[in-house]
Design goal:
Blueprint lengths: L5 H10 L4 H8 L3 H11 L6 H9 L14 H17 L8 E5 L2 H15 L7 E7 L4 H12 L11 E3 L7 H4 L4 E6 L2 H9 L4
Parallel strand pairs: 2-3
Antiparallel strand pairs: 1-4, 2-4
Helix pairs in contact: 2-3, 5-6
Amino acid sequence: MKHFSKQQLEELYIREKLSMSEIAKRMKCSIHSIQYWMQKFGIPSRSRSDAAYLQHNPDGDPFIWSPPRTQADHILYGLGLGLYWGEGTKSCKTSVRLGNTDPELLRTFMKFLIRFFHIRHEDFRFGLQIFSDMDPGCALQYWMRTLRVKREQFHKKVIVSKSGSMGTYRKKSMYGVVTVHYHNSKLRNMLVSRLPL
């Protein structure tokens, strides 16, 4: 069996963020050998969710947390968390999601994510749900214009519901319901942890 030092494994696994299989391939040994020495040195292995997150974000988190500094920042920060608490989909474990019929509310939430987490405007994705008596093209144009986003940021398929099947939503908007998505489980968990649940 190939021998490793603790320092060597920590460099590869923790600092370089390689997986055990990637280390085994680089060092030309079996993955069992890597697992043996990791356990021997007490180096904790990543959970499956951590490993999957790292695989999707090899360069680290795609967001950077910046705390509020000014009074205006604190107001926006409180608004953003309040919107997520009241309107966000907390049950989704993999992304930050918030749906509404009000474009100003959605823009405020996006502004919150951009200001405090440096999310790029082009990285937002959107889902559109309309009613059967609405024109999908007209609704898409409305939301693209009011949210200042491109067509490719919307999911290809527009969900069409039977008119009247969404209760009070039908009375609130002529253009359906938009859900803003930012796919990142770590940011989702960070936001949920800051809610008074």
